[in-house]
């Protein structure tokens, strides 16, 4: 069973990464882009997501030499699109209370791409009471805390009250699991991602929350797979890889593999996929990202990976 999961997860992840790499120019920033970023979710955010996937492929080192090369090239492309970090620095300099420069920078720092002036500025702004008090969703507060840990602003995890931040989330309340809805499920997945640093620290998810997720994750995956919400299914499969005892089943992986297109695209849902390359990328880039991450972590965990970084 483990061999089957490892093989299928690797195939899905490798194809998804290859698709992201092949389509990367479709995700380039417009030539006239500035740090203001009138629509940051349109290109800026997807660049950070592709960089995240690449950084985790590199971190786990569970892929073959070809995938590692593609991951290096993909994260390098994303970094150059952001001016080798200059755009993040400029954005933070102008908008000190925005958290996205730190969150976007974290995967690059994980991948060894550093920007000293940005880190100096982050060290200053992240300590400001005004920045600490920005009103954002509880799981996003965990995202900021984990990004600070990854970048090195909080290497020992003592600058943030992780316990309080955790209990402020939906998951932290161990609520009635049958009342979960689509958006809440996304919030739940990201709570797990940030507490465990994308599976590197499975023990970061408190024991009671680990038991809660372990009990209900199979049902949640089945529910959203039944209605072909593949993006959310892949995110929930990442959650399974972040548990102390990982939940990775051959049936789930075979189901996701059947949904994947031959070129590596993973559809976001059961709707028809358009033929236009730009629309295909815009609609399904995120699902390829989460499929690549899910597969990377599944391969690593089934091969015995998943320990805290030093």
Structure description:
This protein is mainly α and 310 residues long. 62% of the residues lie in helices and 0% in strands. It has helices at 2-22, 44-60, 65-81, 86-94, 100-110, 116-125, 129-132, 138-151, 162-167, 182-195, 207-226, 230-241, 250-259, 277-302.
List keywords for this structure.
globular, mainly alpha
Helix/strand layout:
Elements: H1 2-22, H2 44-60, H3 65-81, H4 86-94, H5 100-110, H6 116-125, H7 129-132, H8 138-151, H9 162-167, H10 182-195, H11 207-226, H12 230-241, H13 250-259, H14 277-302
Structural class: mainly alpha
Helix content: 55-70%
Strand/helix succession: HHHHHHHHHHHHHH
Beta strand count: 0
Q: Helix count, per DSSP?
A: 14
In this structure, how is the largest beta sheet organized?
none
The parts where pLDDT drops under 50 for at least 5 residues are none
> Could you tell me how far the N terminus lies from the C terminus, measured between alpha carbons in angstroms?
31 Å
* Mean pLDDT level: 94
- Rg value: 18 Å
Outline:
With 310 residues, the chain is mainly α. Helices cover 62% and strands 0% of the residues.
């Amino acid at each position: 069973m483990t061999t089957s999961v490892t093989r299928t997860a690797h195939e899905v992840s490798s194809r998804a990464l290859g698709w992201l790499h092949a389509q990367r120019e479709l995700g380039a920033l417009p030539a006239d882009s500035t740090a203001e970023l009138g629509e940051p979710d349109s290109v800026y955010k997807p660049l950070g997501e592709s960089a995240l996937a690449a950084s985790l492929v590199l971190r786990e080192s569970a892929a073959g030499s070809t995938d590692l090369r593609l991951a290096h090239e993909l994260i390098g492309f994303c970094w150059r699109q952001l001016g080798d970090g200059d755009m993040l620095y400029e954005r933070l300099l102008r908008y000190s209370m925005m958290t996205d420069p730190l969150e976007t920078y974290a995967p690059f720092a994980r991948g060894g791409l550093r920007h000293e002036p940005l880190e100096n500025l982050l060290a200053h702004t992240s300590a400001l009471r005004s920045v600490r008090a920005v009103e954002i969703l509880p799981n996003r507060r965990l995202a900021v805390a984990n990004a600070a840990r990854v970048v090195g602003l909080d290497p020992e995890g003592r600058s943030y009250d992780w316990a309080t931040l955790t209990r402020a989330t939906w998951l932290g309340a161990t609520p009635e699991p049958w009342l979960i809805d689509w958006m809440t499920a996304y919030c739940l997945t990201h709570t797990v991602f940030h507490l465990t640093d994308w599976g590197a620290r499975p023990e970061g998810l408190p024991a009671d929350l680990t038991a809660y997720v372990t009990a209900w994750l199979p049902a949640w995956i089945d529910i959203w797979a039944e209605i072909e919400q593949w993006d959310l299914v892949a995110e929930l499969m990442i959650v399974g890889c972040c548990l102390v005892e990982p939940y990775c089943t051959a049936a789930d992986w075979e189901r996701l593999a059947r949904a994947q297109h031959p070129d590596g695209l993973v559809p976001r849902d059961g709707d028809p996929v358009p033929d236009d390359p730009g629309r295909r990328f815009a609609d399904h880039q995120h699902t390829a990202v989460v499929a690549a991450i899910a597969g990377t972590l599944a391969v690593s965990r089934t091969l015995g990976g998943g320990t805290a970084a030093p």
